[in-house]
Amino acid sequence: MGATSARPKVRLMIVDDHTVIREGLSLMLSAEADLEVIGAARNGRDAVEIVTSMKPDVVIMDLNMPVMNGADAIKRIRGARPEVDLLVLSSFKDEHEVLRAIDSGAHVYLFKDGPTEVLERAIRNIYAGRSSLNPEIASTELRHLSGTSSHRHDDDLTSMEVRGSEMAFQTPGSPRR
Question: How many helices (H) and strands (E) does the chain have?
């Protein structure tokens, strides 16, 4: 008889200074059979400490928090635990904030106003070594990499390029389980 191997749960940590967001995400994500919320923090400093002891697979991080912001926490977590996947969930759509989070080491950047299915898919993708870019983020990142201004409409991605940016790609440097 062959042994059936249950797929391990993705161990999550939620970092947000708003209690209702932390608790709501925890309830929502814990309802998924393959996801397990193992910890939460209300600021970046606490997140760095908890990540070291709890060893989550994926950290869902807000950016605007007291004590230590998300971008600084991401840098410290990347330095201490580079194998941890970092997903930013923020209300900031400002190009500067998006690029700052990505430059800090975030693997994924999602907007809080997006559908829950997108967040759940992003968690599973990042854990599997893939990532999906929101078309707005992809456009911002490509303009940044090419050195063009985000204010020029003629540099916008075509609909085909946007669809292509939503496809999964391998996240460099992410160890897989």
Answer: 7, 7
Task: Identify the DSSP state of 28.
Answer: H
Both tokens of 89, joined, read: 């969930």
Q: How many angstroms separate the CA atoms of 111 and 129, rounded? A: 20
List all residues 6 or more positions away from 99 whose beta carbon is below 8 Å from its beta carbon. Answer: 140, 141, 144
Structure tokens at 93: 């759509």
Q: What would the two tokens of residue 164 be?
A: 């292509």
96 burial (CB, 10 Å; 0-12 / 13-18 / 19+) is exposed
Which tens digit of pLDDT belongs to each residue from 61-74? 998 889 999 889 99
The structure's pTM equals: 0.73
Looking from the CA of 65 toward its CB, the CA atoms found within 13 Å total 29
77-97 pLDDT, tens digit each: 999 999 999 999 988 777 777
Domain range summary for the chain, segments of one domain joined by +: 10-129
CATH classification code of 10-129: 3.40.50.2300
How much is the CA Rg of the chain, to the nearest whole Å? 16
Both tokens assigned to 11: 């161990």
CB within 8 Å of 87: residues ≥ 6 apart = 58, 59, 60, 61, 106, 107, 108, 109, 110, 122, 123, 126
